[in-house]
TrEMBL record:
It comes from Rhizobium metallidurans. Residues 1-25 form the signal peptide. GO terms for molecular function: cellulase activity. This is cellulase. The keyword Acetylation does not apply. The lineage of its organism: Bacteria, Pseudomonadati, Pseudomonadota, Alphaproteobacteria, Hyphomicrobiales.
Length: 350
């Protein structure tokens, strides 16, 4: 991408996000103490984000989240550290996407060279935000390369819909008889308009519209919830070979919707109530029976419901959600994303 074009893209990103001046783009949305606690727990000196609930592996999702959080903390040095590991250890595929799994205990460390499309989108989104805010054309150019690779390899039309394949390999026919298979939590709705600036195509808007339409239709079982993995071969249904559950993947969907400004309160509240167990905490849900499988009491999971209550009903976040004490990588990440969003868009809920 030529220098003048990156400048135009950066300006378009700033306009899209409503940044009236450079300082507004550089304000930290995450408290410095919270970011310090997060990186002390999960950021290795090499720049990799450690998934401490999954054998201490690293993956493209975690690197994307780490970049996003470092940007939200306005910490350029940490961002560059995470980006160095990401580009040298994960951006190894010939198609421009990242390998998804890196295991410190294995040799070679890359144990699955397929991509994870949400990880790619997270990385590109964080790079675009940081490049625009910090006037770094290299970040914007790298974001554009990833966005173009996603558009070319993972954003596809199927059955009249535009969908995001979870990975380039293994999720569509002929490899899967029930393909295409999607993961509805891979739609990062706030990032998709940025992808459209980086790799212009009408397909991005169609991806948003069709993703929301599919999500509204995925009302499986008595709790009317989406599955983590969904077959679109005919009518949407839980995919073969996966547990038919609303699981750890899907728990973040309401947070993504809220952060993107999706104003469908009926859908937000349906998801929130459907995923809540009798003890008031979110849970993984057996879609066939509607029974909770595992209660998720960590503040990082609870904050998803708290964000929905803030957006839909004006309810203040409880003290337990406002206090950050990192535990496991995934809920700790969700908690910081939730806190950053509420601090910026709904400070009255704090």
């Amino acid at each position: 991408m030529r220098g003048w074009l990156t400048i135009l893209v950066a300006a378009a990103i700033a306009s899209l996000l409503g940044w009236s001046q450079p300082a507004s783009a550089q304000t930290a949305r995450i408290d410095a103490a919270a970011w310090s606690a997060y990186k002390a727990k999960f950021l290795d000196p090499t720049g990799r984000i450690i998934d401490n609930a999954n054998g201490n592996i690293s993956h493209s999702e975690g690197q994307g989240y780490g970049l996003w959080l470092a940007y939200l903390a306005n910490n350029q040095a940490d961002f560059e550290q995470i980006w160095y590991f990401t580009r040298t250890e994960l951006l190894l595929r010939d198609d421009g996407l990242a390998v998804w799994k890196w295991d410190p205990s294995a040799k070679p460390h890359v144990t699955d060279a397929n991509n994870a499309s949400d990880g790619d989108m997270l990385i590109a989104y964080a790079l675009a935000l940081a490049g625009s805010a910090w006037k770094n054309n290299d970040y914007i150019e790298a974001a554009a390369r990833i966005a173009k690779a996603l558009l070319a390899n993972a954003v596809v039309k199927s059955g009249g819909r535009t969908i995001l394949l979870p990975g380039v390999e293994g999720f569509d026919a002929p490899g899967r008889q029930d393909g295409p298979v999607i993961n509805p939590s891979y739609w990062i709705y706030e990032a998709i308009p940025i992808m459209a600036l980086l790799a212009p195509s009408d397909a991005w808007n169609a991806l948003t519209e069709d993703g929301l339409t599919l999500l509204r239709s995925m009302q499986f079982g008595p709790r009317k919830l989406p599955a983590d993995w969904v077959s679109l071969r005919r009518q949407p249904q839980p995919a073969e070979g996966f547990d038919a559950e609303f699981g750890y993947n899907a728990i973040r969907i309401p947070l993504y919707l809220a952060r993107a400004g999706v104003s469908d309160k009926e859908m937000l509240l349906r998801l929130s109530s459907g995923m809540t167990a009798g003890d008031g905490a979110p849970a993984t849900i057996d879609l066939k029976t509607g029974q909770p499988k595992q209660s998720l009491g960590d503040a990082g999971y609870r904050i998803v419901n708290d964000v929905v209550a803030c957006v839909a009903q004006g309810t203040k976040l409880p003290a337990s959600s406002r206090q950050f004490a990192p535990s496991l990588y995934y809920p700790s990440t969700l908690q910081l994303l939730g806190l950053a969003f509420v601090a910026e868009k709904y400070p009255e809920c704090l």
